[in-house]
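[recover] target loaded
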C-alpha cells in the first residue's frame, strides 16, 4: 500500500498527541515507542547517531520531556506536513512545528521544521530517521536556555 499524505498527517497527529502526553507527565511509553522503528538514525549539528527502540530509548525520551518542562515548554503543534515519496513503503516528510513556551509570564513561540524518514511496516508508519536543526542554539537565542 502506497503511503499517502493523509497517512502521514494522521501519523504526526498521533506523534503530537504523544508529545503532549509527555509534557503532561502521562506518557504511554508503549504508544510512543510504537511510532519508531526498532532501529533508527538521527542527524543534527552534533553529527549522526544510531539508536535502538529499547528500554534505554524510553528512559532517554522521558528525561527529554522533563527538560522540556523545565524550560517552560507548554505545547508542540504540527503546522505543516509535506510528503516526498521514496518508494511504496518509504517517504521523507518535512514537518513544520510550533513549540510554545512560557517564561516570566509571557508566551514565546518557536517555529521550526524537521525532516523525518518514515517506513510503512505491516500497514503502520514508523519513524526510522530524522534530521533536525540546532535546537539548543535556537532555545538559547530565545532566552529559554
Amino acid at each position: 500500500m502506497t503511503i499517502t499524505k493523509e497517512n502521514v498527517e494522521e501519523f504526526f497527529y498521533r506523534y503530537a498527541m504523544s508529545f503532549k502526553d509527555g509534557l503532561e507527565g502521562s506518557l504511554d511509553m508503549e504508544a510512543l515507542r510504537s511510532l519508531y522503528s526498532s532501529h533508527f538514525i538521527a542527524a543534527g549539528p552534533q553529527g549522526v547517531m544510531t539508536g535502538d527502540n529499547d528500554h534505554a530509548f524510553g528512559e532517554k525520551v522521558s528525561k527529554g520531556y522533563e527538560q522540556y518542562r523545565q524550560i517552560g515548554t507548554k505545547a508542540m503543534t504540527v503546522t505543516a506536513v509535506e510528503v516526498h515519496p521514496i518508494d511504496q513503503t518509504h517517504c521523507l516528510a518535512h514537518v513544520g512545528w510550533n513549540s510554545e513556551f512560557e517564561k516570566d509570564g509571557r508566551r514565546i513561540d518557536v517555529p521550526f521544521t524537521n525532516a523525518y524518514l518514515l517506513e510503512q511496516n505491516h500497514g503502520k508508519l514508523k519513524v526510522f530517521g530524522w534530521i533536525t536543526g540546532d535546537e539548543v542554539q535556537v532555545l538559547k537565542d530565545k532566552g529559554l536556555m
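[recover] notes: The chain is about 35% helix and 45% strand.
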